[in-house]
Amino acid sequence: MNLACSLLAACERHPELEAFPGIPYGELLPRVRRIAGGLGVDPGERVAVVLDNRLETALLYWAAQWAGAVFVPLSWRLSEDELDYCLGDCGARVVLREADGLPAGPEHSGELDRDEREISLLLYTSGTTGRPKGVPRSHAADRAGGWSQALQHGYGSADRTLGVMPLYHTMGIHSLVAMHLVGGCFVPQARWDAAEALRLIEQQRVTSLYLAPTLFHDLVHHPDLPRRDVSSVRALGYAGAAMTSTLVRRCADVFSPEVFVNHYGSTEIYTFSIGRDQPAKPGCAGRPAVNTRLRLVETGEIWAHLGSDEAFGGYWNRPDADEKAIHDGWYATGDTGHLDEDGDLWIDGRVDDMIISGGENVHPLEVEDVLAAHPGVVEVAVIGVPDERLGQHVTAIVVGEASADELDEHCLASPLARFKRPREYRFVDSLPKSASGKILRRMLRDETRAEA
Ligand code: AMP
User: Of 238, 219, 239, nearest to 230 (Cα)?
Assistant: First the structure.
């Protein structure tokens, strides 16, 4: 079944339920058909969209699926150069940059017979260096990703999710697809603003939050929180980056969720693993997800099998990237991890972020988790800084009030091995982050190098 057919089935199944606030499934289909008619594209052609997470963007996604076109959502945060590169690379037939005046035409009859293995979506990964890479995703892969999310986050037709993770990122698209597969409601929020998110949660009775850890951090520390009714929220999930144990506990306290999962995945293969019970094992990435096989190779890197129903089939126009990432049917994630005594997976960090200090490996996430538990620390990133004697020394970049001496004492009193303690602390006002909430460690490393 392709995504046009999926949409049709959902609209036939429960026309009375809300697909978006104020728009029942029964009204969604005619709207999508008119927009699809106005796009004027042939099946397989690329429709590029540079819009934030407004309702129109989600409607355009479904219209592209209805027309059998390839939806190419591009970040509004890209520079003109990057945008030009992506538009040229994908060979966009149509480019939409204005939310006003959605295209409208005669109702499109729908490409209902399109092969589900055809491409439905092209996402550009937000690599921190080099050219962005196009990741083509098939109808079948995104449907499988949507179903696995619905199953593993426990969604049903009564669920309403906050649609604020960018629709140009795999989390945003799968939130939309998962909700509409099960007959739930997608509550769009155009751009991140924690006060507005709290207002929407209360007003729209949002039941499920699937966000990057940074966004949870903003929500649970917001001054409006005590005045807002967030009791409708029953399911929490985070992805895109690791969450500290301190933040897991705070989220569990604030929302008392029935479901609280860590969803470890990527654009290339949507879900790698699921840590099912975060309050019980904060930060744990758990077991391979329903469609996935994982293995740890000798270097400690995590590889995922490309036989997953959720997997891509290789990058767009990038044989060089395929060669680097794909080995004998396995996808090299670039992440390192280890298993605990229960056989559960823990992510240690990116292969490139590993610090080697005095010949010992130090994983930034482990040190960050300890530092984040100090009450004076708002946020922290740990990086390796070139050091004549040690090769690299561990440096903590901290947002918060605590002093270097206090933090060092805190580390000494923690289970962290002594040699992993930061040798240097730097205090800043904020940390650079990508749209999916990843701390841009490479940028921090470059900055410290430039200062040295
Ligand atoms: P992206 O394709 O932009 O979603 O990035 C995928 C990468 O994000 C993964 O390879 C990990 O490095 C990181 N990532 C995604 N989810 C998690 C998670 N739950 N915990 C830790 N890192 C994550």
Answer: 219
